Structures are given as structure tokens and as C-alpha cells.
Amino acid sequence: MTTITTPADARKILRVGIAGLGRLGRRHAEALAFSTRHVELVSACSPVDAEREHARSALGVARVYADFDAFIADPDVDAVVLVTPTSLHADQTIAALKAGKHVFVEKPLALNVPDCERVLAVAEQHPDQIAMVGFVRRFDASYQNAHAAIVAGDIGRPFLVRSQTCDQNDPDGFFVRFAPTSGGIYMDCSVHDIDLARWMLGRPKALRAFASGTIALHPGLAECNDVDNGLAIVEFEGGARAVFYASRTFAHGHETTTEVIGTAGKLLVGEHAALDRVIRSDARGVGHAVLPDFHARFEGAFTREIAAFVAACRGGAPLDLTLADAMEATRIGLAITRSLHSGQVETVA
Ligand code: NAI
């Protein structure tokens, strides 16, 4: 690991390796290779031949690894970006920290609390290394503006968050194949809304959760005890409440929307899922094109998120987003998931 402390050091380029070059990993890799400052994408890791070939030919990465242990043992890498299946996040983060690397790991940090605790304990032993979890919405300009308005007192005391993550229906059912390692709809999708709610409400302690869901279009999810539409209510200490909705089956496009209600006003982020600022009027009516997926909605935020990680590794301002936040999001997501399965109100423990 390179520790950057002097002005001369600050000009140094951060050498980054990426593990996982799937749906999202490819996007992070492109950002690192072509559009992030002060960084060089020097290595990549994937068990899939075609993905390693992609790293060589399309991204110009010289050192590619099929084996994760060899990847993190590379001494000429300062930081790693882990965009691997969720079930691997905790162990890979721990291994990378122990190998002396800064780590960016995609959300959620882990699928159980003991795994989160193990990561936090190892991170505490490596205080000079950055460990960041990819809650991308914290880097979206609209969510940042909303958060700043709340901190400035514009809506009084925020006490209720209603937040949804709704994906366009994928008839091929990518996420059905993904379900066995994703932790289910709440751990995979609502975990973003959970983190947002805690951030907007000032990190209150979560107490209880209740969930219900249904399978509207994808019966294959039943095998993993999952649903394609899920609702949840979470109660927080001090009276704050959150309501979450996640869907895999929207007909029109991707719609991530969050409403924060306070004692003196409310804020609404992301209404209408508009792709751009064009409104078309014709004989069929008035309308606009719609966002196709999460990446179209959060492309700018993904870029800023990776830039924030690189800046933190190079000695910039500490991140407001912590591993403890990620552990709380997992804790709440698990209570919601337990409630889906039990049909009962569950304690957030
Ligand atoms: P994916 O299945 O498309 O990609 C997973 C990648 O990991 C593949 O390239 C696969 O070859 C690689 N891989 C598997 N085992 C590996 C190992 N042992 N070592 C190294 N690489 C390995 O999945 P996707 O959609 O890209 O998701 C990856 C992660 O990103 C998940 O944890 C998911 O929750 C998260 N994600 C986050 C989003 C966000 O909004 N922040 C959006 C989409 C995904």
C-alpha cells in the first residue's frame, strides 16, 4: 500500500485492481480505466476467461488473474475494487485489507451481521487503509442536495422516509439466477433505501420491522424464498419511521424515488423516472422517455463514488459513509427479510 502524505506524494497515481467484471464491474472498470483522475487500472480478476480477455483487450489491463488470492498478493497494487457476488464480499474485503490494500466493495457489505463484524474488526486493525461500501446514492447530486437541505433545517425535523427501488421487468430473469447469492430483494435492492433512510433521518437506531411481498411475474423466485415485489415498514427509536418498496417488475422502466417528510415540509427525489428533459406531445398524449435501468439513473453518481474512493485513498477528506453504516443497513435488511419469511413483526437485532 502507498501512504500519501506529502504534496509530492499527492501527485502519485493510485494503482487499482478490480475483481468482478460482470454487469456492474465492467462499468466500474471503464470508469477506472478511462475517466477517473489520479488512478491507473493495473490489474483485474475474474474466474471467467472472456472477462479476463475483456480486461486485456478492451481495458488495456496488463495483469489479469483467475485466482483472487494471487490478485490481492500483487505488491504493485494500492487499492482494490470488489464487484463480485455479494456472498463473497466479507471474506474478500478481509483478505484484501490483510494484504495491505485499500478496499472499495459493492453493497451490501455482507449477508449476515457476524460477517459485517468480522470486516469491521479487521478494518480497525488497518486504520490507515480506506474501506468503503458502494452506497452509490450518497454520491447522487439530487440526494446530496436533499440531504444538505435537511441538515440546514429546511423541512424541520424529518420523521418519515418513503423510498422505493423499482426495476423494469426483465423477461430473461437475470435476477432470478442472481437470487441465490443476492440475499433477496430487500438485501439487494431495498438496502440502498435503508441506507438512504438512515442518512436522511440522522442515523437513528432501528427497532422493529414488518414486511410483506408477492410474486407477480417470476415464480422461479419461490425456490429461494424471494419475491419480485416487496413492502416493508421500519420503526426507529425516537419516533421516526420508514416505508420501503422494491419491485423487479415495473412495465415502463427503472424508478427510484424517495420522499422525506418533516415537520416543516417535505422533499421528493427522483419522481417520474424521466430519461431526459424532453416532453413529447402528440395524438397519443403528453409524455417522456423513461430510464431503462439503475445505471442510466445513477451513472454520474457511480463516477463520483469511485472518484471519492480514489480521493480518500490518496489522503483526501475522510468519507462520511462508514462500514458501521453498511453493517446497520445489513442488520435492518435482515430483519425485514426475516419478517417476510415469518409473517411477524421482527426485532432489528
Ligand atoms: P454479476 O454476476 O454480473 O458479476 C459478478 C462478477 O464477479 C462476474 O464478473 C464474475 O465472474 C465475478 N466473480 C465471481 N466469483 C469471483 C471470484 N471468486 N473472484 C473474482 N471475481 C469473481 O453481478 P453484478 O450485477 O455485477 O453484481 C456484483 C455486485 O455488485 C453485487 O454484490 C451487487 O449487489 C452489486 N451491485 C450494486 C449495484 C449498485 O447500485 N450499487 C447495482 C448492481 C450490482
In terms of topology, how is this protein built?
Layout (H helix, E strand, L loop, with lengths): L6 H4 L3 E6 L5 H11 L3 E7 L3 H9 L5 E3 L2 H6 L5 E4 L6 H10 L3 E5 L6 H13 L5 E4 L6 H11 L6 E11 L5 H9 L2 H17 L4 E9 L14 E8 L4 E10 L4 E8 L2 E5 L10 E3 L2 E3 L6 H20 L9 H20 L3 E2 L2
Bound molecules: 1,4-dihydronicotinamide adenine dinucleotide.
1,4-dihydronicotinamide adenine dinucleotide binds next to loops.
Annotated CATH architecture of the largest domain = 2-Layer Sandwich
The span between the termini is 36 Å
Q: Which assembly state applies to the chains in this document?
A: single chain
Number of helices: 11
Protein name: Myo-inositol 2-dehydrogenase/D-chiro-inositol 1-dehydrogenase
GO cellular component, one term: cytoplasm
GO molecular function: nucleotide binding; oxidoreductase activity
Keywords: Oxidoreductase
Verbal overview:
By secondary structure, the chain is of the alpha/beta class. The chain has two domains: 7-134, NAD(P)-binding Rossmann-like Domain (Rossmann fold, 3-Layer(aba) Sandwich), CATH 3.40.50; 141-296 and 328-347, 2-Layer Sandwich (Dihydrodipicolinate Reductase, domain 2). 37% of the residues lie in helices and 25% in strands. The chain has eleven helices and 15 strands. It has helices at 7-10, 25-35, 49-57, 68-73, 89-98, 113-125, 141-151, 174-182, 185-201, 294-313, 323-342, and strands at residues 14-19, 39-45, 63-65, 79-82, 102-106, 131-134, 158-168, 206-214, 229-236, 241-250, 255-262, 265-269, 280-282, 285-287, 346-347. The strands form three sheets. Strands 12-11-7-10-9-8-15 form a seven-stranded mixed beta sheet, with helices on one face. Strand 13 (280-282) and strand 14 form a beta hairpin. Helix 5 runs parallel beside helix 6, helix 6 (113-125) packs antiparallel against helix 11 and helix 9 crosses helix 11 (323-342). 1,4-dihydronicotinamide adenine dinucleotide binds next to loops. Residues 14-134 form the Gfo/Idh/MocA-like oxidoreductase N-terminal domain.
